[in-house]
């Protein structure tokens, strides 16, 4: 084993050589949104626990979550929720054996990237 000719073997692609594909980027974004949803869930639980604790504490937490920063964080949480939901639907379609060829897969990827902001906008309009 020690005398294997390692000079003729190709190197694995590196970040400088590898061209990111839509499927890989949507997969990475799906993982990121899953982690972000955990943070949004913690904020909602914090808000509910503050409501159960005391009125002054709830006023502080509610003031934070209804401030501009809180609105941005909660809007991004809704965006992450829609994106993660659409990614889950795409995986269900794949699990049924449909949409596995590259063209259909790219169409579904673009559908996720366009659909999540559109559904977030509709959600915000419905709430307001």
Account of the 3D structure:
The model has no long low-confidence stretch (mean pLDDT 91). This protein has one domain (22-127): 3 helical TM bundles of succinate and fumarate reductases, CATH 1.20.1300. It has 4 helices and no strands. α3 (68-95) runs antiparallel to α4 (102-127). The protein is elongated and about 70 Å long. The chain is mainly alpha-helical and 128 residues long.
Notable features of this structure?
76% helix, 0% strand, 128 residues, 4 helices, elongated, 3 helical TM bundles of succinate and fumarate reductases, mainly alpha
Helix-strand sequence: HHHH
3D shape: elongated
Beginning-to-end CA distance, first to last residue: 68 Å
CATH C-level name: Mainly Alpha
In oligomeric terms, what are we looking at? Answer: single chain
Measured on Cα atoms, how large is the radius of gyration? 22 Å
- What's the CATH topology name? 3 helical TM bundles of succinate and fumarate reductases
Question: How many strands in all?
Answer: 0
- The CATH architecture category equals Up-down Bundle
Poorly predicted parts: none
Count of runs of 4 or more consecutive helical residues: 4
Share of residues in helices: over 70%
Report the major sheet.
none
Total individual domains: 1
Kindly report the average pLDDT value. 91
Helix and strand content put the structural class at mainly alpha
């Amino acid at each position: 084993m020690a005398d294997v000719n390692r000079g003729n073997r190709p190197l694995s692609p590196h970040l400088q050589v590898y061209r990111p594909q839509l499927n890989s980027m949507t997969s990475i974004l799906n993982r990121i949104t899953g982690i972000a949803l955990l943070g949004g869930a913690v904020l909602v639980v914090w808000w509910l626990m503050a409501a159960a604790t005391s009125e002054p504490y709830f006023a502080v937490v509610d003031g934070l979550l209804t401030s501009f920063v809180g609105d941005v964080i909660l809007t991004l949480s809704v965006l992450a929720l829609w994106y993660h939901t659409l990614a889950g639907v795409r995986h269900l379609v794949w699990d049924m054996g449909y949409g596995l060829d590259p063209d259909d897969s790219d169409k579904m990827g673009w559908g996720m990237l366009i659909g999540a902001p559109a559904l977030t906008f509709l959600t915000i309009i419905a709430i307001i």
